Amino acid sequence: MSTTIPRRTLLRRTIPRRTAPVRGRLRALAAAPAYPWCTGAALTVGAVAELTVFPGSLTNATAILISTASLMWRRAFPPVALVSVAAGLLSFGADSSLSIAVMISGLVACYVLGRHRVLHPALLIAGGAFGALAVNLWHILRWARDERLPDVPPLGNAGSLGLFAEAFGLSAVILGAVCMGDAVRSREETRRERAHSQAQLIAVERRQAAEAERAAIARELHDIVSHSVSMIAVQAESATYTTPGLSPQARDGFQQIAGTARASLAELRRLLGVLRTAPHHDEAAATAPQPTLDRLGELVDQHRAVGGSAELRISGERVPLAAAWELSAYRIVQESLTNARKHAPGARAVVELDYREDRLAIRVTDDGPGPPRDGGGASGHGLTGMRERAALVGGSLTAGAADDGGFRVEAELPW
Predict the structure, then answer these.
(1) C-alpha distance from residue 83 to each of 5, 91, 158 (Å)
(2) What are the backbone angles phi and psi of residue 264, rounded to the nearest 5°?
(3) What are the backbone angles phi and psi of residue 288, rounded to the nearest 5°?
(4) For the purposes of burial, counting CB atoms within 10 Å of the CB of 10, is it exposed (0-12), middle (13-18) or buried (19 or more)?
């Protein structure tokens, strides 16, 4: 059984996708530095052509050209739009008809005045209405002086309100253009404030994530170092009883080693007590043994168990690494697989470990959609933690779009 999509719904789905690139091109064109110069020059050329076909008085022609040509400086010096509006009203007052070029330049000038808040919108609208009324009264006065035209109806009589239609019409147009420019300005200011607030929030979240990751690294290192130091203390103390023929100086040396180890261990425990006061601490994770690269197979199996597809590739001769290197490498792979499940569910991930002469190279790739076009995928909190892990052992980590699509994480941990 097939269903038919209504044409109206289909148009709503397809038209925005087609018009979005067009809107982007128009915005880029309007933001170009040459845009005001080109549009102002084109409007001036149109005014010259209009004056050639419909010539007027010298005052009218001069005012029209000033009104259009002054718009070429509207971005560099927005108050010049006041000159454009004043010249437009003067040209209309000098002639009984309103030029098309003046109508366009007046609309653009009023929009610029509201867009850049040259004056308060109320003052702009009031000033424009006053100028329109002055031009209207001048036309009424010229009408009354022209004997070829019928007499002007007295104010208060029927039909006298129609004498001010010009003022009403021009005031409405000025009101609309100024309000539109002010609305665009308010929207862009709100957008800038929102972007600034969002950037501040992201910076705070990244800082908190980095601090939390460093605290976690410190807790894990405590577990590693405390185990080694405790072994030193036990072995140094037991050596005084299990080693025959020790001199008193050697026995005292072993006791000093044991005492120093115990003091260091107590200091480590005090520092760990401070770190464990951090909120949202996982007590189960704190007591669990620290993972090593020998457990990468289990990690890949866990990724597969939750619906992901992963492959583990190991090249080079397996080199026993220090606990800090093993833990950092394991956490980098773990976080990479977590990001793959989160941002590219269903994608196939490949984990590659390459044991080289002086370093361990790690590469985790997936065939998902890759990072977002705005670059947000390369600045997540998980990546911040992985970079902290790599920097801990003197290594480096890079992340971004893979050459053949998808996302990649590459790390090198030297030893």
Answers:
(1) 54, 12, 37
(2) -65, -40
(3) -75, 150
(4) exposed
Closest CA to 106 of 124, 139, 81: 81
Write out the chain's pLDDT in tens, 415 residues. Answer: 444 444 444 444 444 445 557 777 877 888 888 888 998 999 999 999 998 988 878 888 899 999 999 999 999 999 999 999 999 999 988 887 788 999 999 999 999 999 999 999 999 999 999 998 998 888 888 777 766 666 666 665 656 667 788 888 899 999 999 999 999 999 999 999 998 888 888 788 777 777 777 777 776 666 667 667 777 777 777 777 777 777 888 878 888 888 888 777 777 766 666 555 544 445 444 445 578 888 888 888 888 887 788 899 999 888 888 877 888 898 899 888 888 888 888 888 999 999 988 889 999 999 888 776 555 444 456 787 788 888 888 899 999 888 888 899 999 999 8
Residue type, 181: G
C-alpha closest to that of 68 among 96, 29, 95, 103: 103
The C-alpha atoms of residue 123 and residue 209 are separated, in whole angstroms, by 50
pTM for the predicted model, two decimal places: 0.55
In one letter, which amino acid is 235?
Q
